[in-house]
Amino acid sequence: MLKVMRRWLLTAVPVVLIVSMLTFVLTSFVPGDPARTILGLSATPEQVDRLREQLGLDDPLPVRYGAWLWDVLHGDLGRSLSTGGSVATELGGRAQVTLSLLIVGTFVVAIVGVSLGVVSAVAGGSLGRFVDVVSLIGLAVPGFWLGLVLVAVFAVWLRIFPATGYISFATSPMGWMASLFLPVLTLAITGTAGLAKQTRSSVLDELGKDYVRMLRARGVSERRILLIHVLRNAGAPIVTVLGLMFIGLVGGAVLLEMVFVLPGLGSLTVNATRANDIPVILGVTLFLSLVVVTVNLIVEISYALLNPKVRT
Question: Which fold has domain 100-265?
Answer without folding.
Answer: MetI-like fold (1.10.3720)
